[in-house]
Amino acid sequence: MLLKDPCPLCDGESVLATETVATPVIEGLSLVNDVLSIAEQVRVVEWLQSQVLLGRQCLLPGSTFTPVPEKYEDRKQSREMLQYGTYTHSNKVPEQMVGELPEVAPLPEVLCFVVDRLIELGIITKSQRLDCCTCSLYDTGQWIAPHIDNPMFQRPICIVSLLSEQHMVMGKGIVCTNGQCVKSSHGDLVRFALPVGSAVVLAGDAANVWEHAIPPVSEARISLTFRKLAVKGPERDVEIANCSAARKTYRDSRSTNGSTQAKEKPPSNRAELMAATKARKLEKARKLEQSAHDLVRSGHAETFPSSEDLKKKVTALDGQELTAKPNSSNVDSFRNITQKLPATKTNKKFCSKCPEALLLPMIADAGLGESRTEWNINHRALPLLEVEHVQKVYNAVARQWHGTRYSMWPGVEDFIKRQPRHSLVADVGCGNGKNMPAVRLAGSTVLGSDFSSGLADICAERGLEIKLADALNLPYRSNVFDYALNIAVLHHISSETRRVMLVQETMRVLRVGGVALFYAWAYEQSQGGVSGHIFEGSDVFVPFKKKGGLGEKPSSGSIGEGSHNAAVFQRYCHVYREGELAQLFQKLLWCSVERVYFDCGNWCIEVRKCTNEPQAQLPLRATSANQLVQVRSWQLLVPGVLCACKSVQCRFQ
């Protein structure tokens, strides 16, 4: 069970005391702090993130998941949504829609728990129990226009805020420019903060007369809007009439004031429609060409189709919609067009930006406590992004991956040759073990570790010493290895905090005087990269086609079907810019950076352990054994390296 009494999300801990904070004096408006504790927020957000991953793959019922509509993408006037209990579209409910009604999933247990908490705190009564929820997941810069919630929903409406503190703006007849609320045509414009874990309650005038809006958010945010359809009757009819009158007044005011929210007049005849369609396509082609030239100027591509090529493609596609995939940028749209052109090295390996909301430190295992110390400790636990888009992907493609990764990079080979014979070596994140035979040939003993069971199995079959373990929780004692390899691991770590922890953990197991080599994928592929990839940003998804994979049940890392009977898996990567790798070691004063260089599209760094790790920087014990990757041993020829009980949990003893 995900949830259980009395407090399933924090293992029976007492509920935090609530505090009503100062808010604008608007009848029916209230704001309550600390509705959910930190542990409860983590659990809810983690679950929502997993559902978004499923929704993007069309694995949720009906219209439970809604991507950002294409028409709103450029101006960021929307967000991804999960809807439970009741479907809404453009502030309309099923009763106001025609045709087949969209299906959504019922309110899940994790959100029922939040409703129970609202009742427990007296924010709503049992008779007002809310049974539907719209979960909005905002990326940086996204915003919601001023509106009054559909009066067919009973009042009050409760909105719970998660992930980051943002602002709500309320007014009567709010006028917006590029998402910013600039004035209210009927009175004051008020703005107030929505703290993380708080709930804002809209009833009375606050829900029926005042509009509310969310300006462009400064960082990722999630809101849970809990509502319930009102029962038909005189009371609902009165509210509908009042709201309709207010909404009409505000629409008229915005039209008079020339608000940016006013809609363009639609074409009146076929000739105008065709002209408007052609103009729209040419404008889109112009923007896509500009995006292409930006990539060329930044050094991430060699050549792109010219303006004339794009115009010819637009002409060839006349009568068809040049649509982009949900949540894609102009560069993604350019990719969709160039995929129809003859394949070139510059357009085959485009890596799209990872959604910002997925980069938050949400873990894929329960057990967090409420203290900030435990929150920091659990950065060592695997985030959901790394589970779904790294670990599960490598498990699924291990065999095919093994067939393509067999050559050492020159810098790695040179490093191994420069090390003394008879060394004890740790290959952290060894993958299929491609570098381990060279260590053996150099006269040393090497122990590999990787968190992918699929790749670990391949190492075992090759007769290599291998442990199934997380690179942030190595099952080794401190100060035992003469040197270490950490090749192509850091670019799969999703936060700077965890990257520092990873390099610290590799350096921990080295003896004083030992040296480690780190490789991580470089953003600057134009400097000599061999992969031909084009990165849209520093945090990206890199596609991998698994041949003959369509018959398999996909993991969350699989986002679609490729050509030639191949399943497409998206690997998360953080690609490093020049100087970024060395910055990870700035706080490790007991280590010394000896060399930084570029090799085969990777930034590389050699680091030596100068003294023992200070006690204050020793890794902290995790709060739950379930948060650590299980260790599996096939053979062990080197005594005294593992903890006495060969358990990850005992490595601190």
Describe it:
With 653 residues, the protein is an alpha+beta fold. It folds into three domains: 20-257, Alpha-ketoglutarate-dependent dioxygenase AlkB-like (Jelly Rolls, Sandwich); 270-348; 372-650, Rossmann fold (3-Layer(aba) Sandwich), CATH 3.40.50. 27% of the residues lie in helices and 22% in strands. The chain contains 15 helices and 26 strands. The strands form six sheets. Strands 1-2-12-7-14-5-4-3 form an eight-stranded antiparallel sheet. A seven-stranded mixed sheet has the order 18-17-16-19-20-26-25. Helix 6 (270-297) runs antiparallel to helix 7 and helix 10 packs parallel to helix 13. The two termini are 34 Å apart. 42% of the residues are buried. Mean pLDDT is 76; it is low at 1-21, 260-264, 295-308, 310-348, 363-377, 549-564, 618-639 and 643-653.
Name the features.
eight-stranded antiparallel beta sheet, elongated, 3 domains, disordered C terminus, 26 strands, single chain, Jelly Rolls, disordered N terminus, Rossmann fold, 22% strand, 15 helices, 653 residues, alpha+beta, seven-stranded mixed beta sheet
Short account of what is shown:
With 653 residues, the protein is an alpha+beta fold. The protein is 27% helix and 22% strand.
Low-pLDDT windows of residues? 1-21, 260-264, 295-308, 310-348, 363-377, 549-564, 618-639, 643-653
Number of domains: 3
Number of strands: 26
Q: CATH class of the largest domain, please?
A: Alpha Beta
- Percent strand: 15-25%
